[in-house]
Amino acid sequence: MERGHFAKHLRRMRLVYQRKHDLLLGAIQRNFGGKASVRGQGAGFHILLTLHSGGSVRQLAEKAAAAGIRVTPMSYTWWSKPENNEPEFILGFGGIAEGRIEEGVQLLAGVWMSQDSFTDI
C-alpha cells in the first residue's frame, strides 16, 4: 500500500467493472429493446431488469435456469408485494467475464422471448 499498488489496483478494477456495466446495458438494449427496462445503473455490481410482459416470475426464472442462466427474482427481497405486476430480476455482472456478457444476455433474451414467451408466461 505504501508503494501505491492498492490504489493502482482500485483504478484498474473500476475500469473493468465500468466496462462490464456498459457491456451489460448495451446487450440488454440490443437484445430486449423496448420489452425490458433497467434500473439501478451505476449502483453496484448488478442491475434490476424489468420485463414488460406481465408474465410469471417463477416461470421465467425456471426457463432461465433450464438454459443454465442464473437470475434472481426481485421478489425474494420483498416484505410485501408491490403493485407492479411486471417481472423483475436482479442481474449481477461483477463475476462474469467481459466476453461472456453479450452471449449471456443474448441467450437469456432468446429463452424469454421465444415463440411461447410473453403470451404464455
Task: Walk me through the structure.
- With 121 residues, this protein is of the alpha+beta class.
- Helices cover 47% and strands 14% of the residues.
- The protein has four helices and four strands.
- It has a four-stranded antiparallel β-sheet, with helices on one face.
- Helix 1 (5-32) packs parallel to helix 3 (98-112).
- The longest helix is centred in the first third of the chain and has 28 residues, at 5-32.
- The radius of gyration is 16 Å and the shape is globular.
- It starts with a helix and ends with a helix.
- Evaluate the radius of gyration: 16 Å
Note poorly predicted spans: none
Provide the β-strand percentage band: 5-15%
Biggest sheet architecture: 4 strands, antiparallel
The helix content is 40-55%
Lay out the secondary structure.
Layout: H1 5-32, E1 36-39, E2 46-51, H2 57-66, E3 72-73, E4 88-92, H3 98-112, H4 117-120
Antiparallel strand pairs: 1-2, 2-4, 3-4
Brief account:
This protein has 121 residues and is an alpha+beta fold.
